[in-house]
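Fig. S4 source data, part A: sequence.
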Amino acid sequence: MDLKGEQIKDTYGNLLTIGTVAGTPTTGTVQNGDGSDVTDIKFNGKGTFSTGVLFGSDTADANTLDDYEEGTWTPVYEPSTGSFATMTMDVVFATYTKIGRQVTIIANFRTDNVDATGASGNLQIGGLPFTPGDLGFSSITIGRSIEFVNAPDSGVISNNTTNIFLRKNNTDSSSIVGDLTTGAIADKNVMEITATYFV
């Protein structure tokens, strides 16, 4: 259906002329009734852009905002070697926002039951919502870590992995499985974290 030249009113009451072509348009303009291009469009609902959004007079593909997403993720303690016999997590909240290549995560979680039989090595948080790209390391901020045998106080997100590697700056070493409080005890190994990384 060819809508070019048809007139509609926007949410401001302005008379607009559709300037797209017949069929499935890939380019086009929306014009005012006097033939000038519309410079301000207000969506009463959602606007969908199939190839992204460019701002101002920018035309570079690298500067196209082509993704925005919000959601939840599931953090879980993981060992670098083996696996836990039991790891019951209690995730209070864990959300992410992805804008283009940038991902920001926040989370608050703890354990209710830990049996470390079969697990050894460094302690990690697994389950990142997106795999980091080749831009090097990203640090995380630990807002709170309590109810550990020896609580981690920093962490690093390495490229091309979905894990956060926990560290203990007070000993300048990696956090290990033995730092977890074990047993069927509610609300142990509490962590609140935030981090930003790039995919």
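Fig. S4 source data, part B ends here. The two ends are 40 Å apart (CA to CA).
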